[in-house]
Amino acid sequence: MDEGHVAQDVRALARQFADEVRLQGPPRVDEVPRTRRTETVVLAILLPIALLVGGVEVAVLMRASTGGALPSPDPEVLRIESEPCMRRMASIGRAVEAYIEEHGTAPRTLGDLPAGALSEPAVEPRSGRPYEYKPDGNGYTLDCPNVGGHGV
Prior knowledge:
Layout: H1 3-24, H2 36-65, H3 75-82, H4 84-103, E1 132-136, E2 139-143
Antiparallel strand pairs: 1-2
């Protein structure tokens, strides 16, 4: 049986189970008197099962849609993201975004960020020159002063 049929079968079973629970309520436990507590226990057991079935369905569908494996990240993207300059710029960007969220506007300069907001100096690692930061209303631009110096 291929994964497409398995996904359809899982989906059909999940729909059937959900319809039965909707129409009849949770399955009764005849040996135990029906109380609010027993209904809660039954739901506490059935809810994780329903979530597990849904999770399996999603996993099967994702695997079927990608041919069995998740796509590999682009090597060029990995190279750029591992560049020290890009990591530092991302760290500065996160600090500026946190400042904007707290104050409603971008800082006038990177020096206006609170002490400890940056784990490293706001300078390009290879050249030692400061990043070019320009606030723009509630936004900002952040540029590398050494664009050609690291091959990114």
